[in-house]
Amino acid sequence: MTRMFVLSAISVLLLPACSSLRVDHVNFGWPVESVVTVTDDNMIDEGRYIVSCSVARIAYEEFQDSTALKGVKLRLLRNSEGYYFLTGPRFKDVYVFTPEESELALKSKIEVSANGLIDPALNQRPPFVELLDGSSFRKLLTSDDIVEGKKK
Fold first, then answer.
1. pLDDT at residue 47 in the model
2. Are 85 and 99 in contact (CB under 8 A)?
3. Which residue of 12, 68, 88, 134 is most buried, as measured by CB atoms within 10 A?
4. What are phi and psi of 18, to 5 degrees?
5. CB 88 within 8 A of CB 75
6. What residues does each domain of the chain span?
7. What are phi and psi of 128, to 5 degrees?
8. pLDDT of 117-151, one tens digit each?
């Protein structure tokens, strides 16, 4: 009987230690965008935030040519929710990715320009991401859509 009581007491004390630990109110956002140049191997490498990946599939999706981004400077920003926003010159879209195990999965593809961007920039404007392209082009984005600056 005493053994059973001791085992019960130990399991009551140990069970909370086995539950998953969660830290809430985390802001994943980067203070400024990263400008990353695509290598000859179709790779980008953002050293400050430890992001490295191939962009060949993005090049094919956007331009139907997996080598179209070699040497191009892409814009990459992570918002406060942890989504990665990616775009670049001549892009008609902003790609929004969610981090998965050893990959970035497409969450949404937001069309932002019918003719393609010229010199885009991404900025944090919590809770939004701001997309600029020249002095008269400004759009506020969520991870799913344009919330301000959409053509009517």
1. 82
2. no
3. 88
4. -85, -15
5. yes
6. 26-148
7. -110, 170
8. 999 999 999 999 999 998 889 999 999 999 987 65
